[in-house]
Every structure is written in structure tokens, then in C-alpha cells.
Design brief:
The chain is an alpha+beta fold and about 140 residues long. It has helices at about 30-45, 50-55, 130-135; strands spanning about 15-20, 60-70, 80-90, 95-100, 105-115, 125.
Length: about 140
């Protein structure tokens, strides 16, 4: 069964990326691996502000699962908008839902399960209440 693509209105945080000729494959469309990089750019847009960095302390973000659904082909040239929404936050992980759009057309969507890693132990660390509230508030 084919997943239903999300709509632009489903997302609260946006990042924009320009397509590059180097992103294309031998079939003249943007390579699927590049879409994973666009999703990363969208996730990092959520975590790039100074306030969220302070709430994270020294922790790093690690993606432990990434599920991508490809809905349409993407061709160079152009620009894409990456929408990101905090879907769920548990004690040690959170799930982001994302969509890559050209205008109102969803090219691909993804769910990324992420954890905060303690830089010294390389183990998942608890998500503190302040960070949790900030991330939930980022949904608009």
C-alpha cells in the first residue's frame, strides 16, 4: 500500500535548499541519497538555534532510524522546501516527520527517530523537561 503524502499545512518548521547539478544521477533526476541530505538539513534547522543548543547541553543528535517514502521524481534545476514537525518525544528519543516540497507537491516524506547522545559515553541520554517543552513548542 502506498503511503499518502503529507500536505504543506502539516508542517510548522521550514528550511529551503537549492538543487545542484551535482545532485543528479545518470537519469537526470535528483539522486535519492540527496533527499536524505535534504531531510538532514531540515532536522538541523530545528536544532540550530542558540536556545535549543543550550537546552541540549553537550549532547549530540543521532538518527537511529530513517524511513523515507518517495512520492515523485525530482529534477534539476529548482529549489525545495523541507517541512519538519516534532511527532513524538519519549524519555530518550524523539520522532520527526518531514516532507520535501516543490510548491504544494510533496516529493518525499520521512520519519526520523533520533536520540541525544552523551559525547563522553556515546549512549542515549534522557531528554530533559525544558528541551522537551521547547521542542513541542516548536511545532507552532
Amino acid at each position: 500500500m502506498r503511503p499518502i503524502p503529507p500536505k504543506r499545512s502539516d508542517f510548522s518548521h521550514w528550511t529551503t535548499e537549492k538543487l545542484r547539478n551535482a545532485d543528479t544521477d545518470q537519469f537526470h533526476h535528483v539522486n535519492n541519497a540527496v533527499l536524505a541530505s535534504f531531510f538532514e538539513s531540515g532536522r538541523m534547522g530545528v536544532f540550530s538555534g542558540e536556545q535549543v543548543k543550550a537546552l541540549m547541553g553537550n549532547a549530540n543528535i543521532a538518527v537511529v532510524q530513517l524511513l523515507i517514502n518517495f512520492h515523485k521524481e525530482l529534477f534539476y534545476p529548482g529549489e525545495v522546501s523541507i517541512g519538519t514537525l516534532m511527532k513524538n518525544i519519549s524519555e530518550r528519543s524523539f520522532t520527526l516527520t518531514q516532507g520535501i516540497f516543490i510548491n504544494d507537491d510533496c516529493i518525499a516524506s520521512a520519519d526520523a527517530i533520533c536520540v541525544l547522545l552523551d559525547p563522553l559515553s556515546s549512549r542515549a541520554t534522557k531528554i530533559n523537561d525544558s528541551l522537551r517543552q521547547h521542542l513541542l513548542g516548536a511545532n507552532g
